[in-house]
Amino acid sequence: MNRDRNSQLPLRKCALALGAGALGAMISGHALAGCGVNYPLGSSLVPTAYSPNSEGFLRAEFSTPNDGIAGLWGVTFVSDGVAPNPVPAGVVTDFGTVQWHADGTEIMVSGGRPPSTGDVCMGAWEQIGPFTYKLKHVALAWVSTDTPPSMGGPGPSPAQFLGPAIIREVVTLNHPRTSYTGSFTIDQYNPDQSVLLVHVSGTITGTRLTPD
Questions:
Q1: pTM (2 decimals)?
Q2: Architecture of the 67-209 domain
Q3: Which of 61, 105, 107, 153 is deepest in the core (most CB within 10 A)?
Q4: What 3-state class would DSSP assign to 42?
Q5: What angle do CA 187, 190, 191 make, to 5 degrees?
Q6: H/E stretch holding 26
Q7: Euclidean distance between CA atoms 43 and 35, whole angstroms
Q8: Are 18 and 11 in contact (CB under 8 A)?
């Protein structure tokens, strides 16, 4: 009896260690499937990594260190001129600074819009492939006396709410995670989103901003 009981102690200790290890990995934001055990070559198990920004587990090759895209970026939007986009190809439609947060949220300060028209907007993102991310971003647009004609101005005083603009992006990081490129669309609606006022499409580029 004592020998059987003692023979189970290493297994119990192993299970406890694996459980503690898995908990520590979950707290740090990443956990390996299979409790971190090394499996022989030829195993049919698929390596995965847990990502809170992707609704669960991703294939390991989708996982990028330091949450990949999280950080501060300088961005530029350039029109592609494809109908019904009214902006000619090659024209910069906006620029600014963007923060992608590790919790799956995002915020942008636009340098191409006067503050009175709504130059701060927010979004939500998720990883959809190796180094690739999609973003849905909501901007609340206003028109006022200093709104340029290209943005529907000049408008009334006091400023009037024009409606939400839904910005969608799909971007891919380079492997050093210092820049990204991709496509965007902007759909500007009236206040209750019953009428699409304008559709803009094009390419977006981002350059990581660092403390150096």
A1: 0.68
A2: Beta Barrel (2.40)
A3: 153
A4: coil
A5: 120
A6: helix 9-28
A7: 15
A8: no
